[in-house]
Write a structure and sequence with these properties.
Elements lengths: L1 H12 L12 E9 L4 E13 L2 E8 L5 E5 L2 E7 L4 E5 L8 E3 L4 H5 L2 E5 L11 E9 L2 E9 L22 E2 L7 E6 L1
Antiparallel strand pairs: 1-2, 1-12, 2-3, 3-7, 4-5, 5-6, 6-8, 8-9, 9-10, 10-11, 10-12
Keywords: Signal
């Protein structure tokens, strides 16, 4: 029996730590990891516990890191990559701005982006990026998923339900996008 307990403990030690409610407290930095091995600080997110494992959050993007682009009759804050320009698209509607260790969807919605090639004119809202956040040993890592930003061109029927559910997102192949992941640490 003692051998089995040791084996089970060793098995669990290899698993990444699970995010606790306590980790959804304080200010964390948001980084973009690019395929050309850059680690770009994008801004911060401040978590404030509200009880019951829920925290509110507030994002503050560092606009000095972004270039101004006027695309498709709208101003965007964008990162210039050699192979892609990636623009932040803040979720345009009111939302609860809350998260829990089991549900980071509203934070994911405030970290929407679109991409375009440097030579392309305008922006295609079909080229949206959603970063699905998962806990890891240092915080959260967001893997890119493809979305159509036209889906949120009108307010959702229910303001308290995050519109981009798994059925509206497609995984992106590794190395396909310039920003390979977002990190929150």
């Amino acid at each position: 029996m003692r051998f089995q307990v040791c084996l089970f403990a060793a098995f669990l030690a290899g698993w990444p730590a699970v995010v606790s409610a306590a980790e959804l407290d304080g200010t964390k930095t948001i980084f973009a990891n690019t395929r050309d091995k850059q680690r770009i600080p994008l801004g911060t997110v401040r978590f404030s516990p509200r009880g019951g494992g829920v925290s509110s959050f507030e994002i503050s993007m560092d606009h000095a890191r972004f270039a101004d682009y006027f695309l498709s009759m709208k101003e965007f804050k964008c990162l210039d990559g050699k192979v892609e320009i990636v623009c932040h698209v803040p979720y345009p509607y009111s939302n609860p701005r809350t998260v829990s260790a089991k549900d980071m969807s509203w934070l994911e919605h405030d970290l929407l982006f679109l991409f375009k090639r440097p030579g392309e004119f305008g922006a295609s809202m079909r080229n949206g990026l959603y970063f699905r956040l998962e806990p890891d040993e240092r915080g959260w890592v967001g893997s890119p998923q493809a979305i159509d930003l036209n889906y949120i061109s009108a307010p959702p029927d229910a303001a308290d339900v995050a519109p981009y559910d798994p059925a509206t997102r497609d995984d992106v192949a590794p190395g396909e996008r310039w920003i390979e992941s977002l990190l929150i640490e």
